[in-house]
Amino acid sequence: MDYSFLVIMLLAFAALWFMSSRSRKQQREAADFRSNLAVGDEVMTGSGLFGTVTAIDGDVVTLESTPGSSTRWLRAAIARRSEPVVVDDAADAEPAVVEDVPVVDVPDDLSSLPPEPPASGREDRDRDNQ
Asked: What is the membrane topology noted in the UniProt record heading this document (predicted)?
């Protein structure tokens, strides 16, 4: 009896089992994360919207992305917790140094530019010889 087919089937079954157990673990962790959401958490949705949780009502989570702008999301749409943005106040305390750079006037259209010098005519002779 040829056992190679049986060995290949066992290896395939083992690979599928390991892959599915890993995905089940990830799904369980995501469900635990979503069930432990709290007001004030910084989160990111599956579509990439960052916001702060302002209210939770059952399966509906209200996020504030900018002050005064609230949107409602299903709890399942929250992908992960994000780190709050840290603003470095020390960089803002020092005034920015602006060097004096000469101002260049840029014309609105080409009519105010000087005309191009005429072609030397050499290009026309080259075209005639071909």
From this structure: Single-pass membrane protein
Rounded Cα distance between 20 and 88, Å, is 44
DSSP 67-122: TTEEEEEEGGGEEEE-PPP---HHHHHSPPP----------SSGGGSPPPPPP-SH
Residue 24: φ, ψ to 5°: -65, -35
What are the residues whose beta carbons fall under 8 Å from the beta carbon of 73, sequence distance 6 or more? 45, 60, 61, 62, 63
Model confidence pLDDT, tens digit, residues 41-63: 899 999 999 999 999 998 899 99
Cβ proximity of 52 and 64 under 8 Å: yes
Cα separation of 66 and 50, whole Å?
9
The pLDDT of residue 53: 93
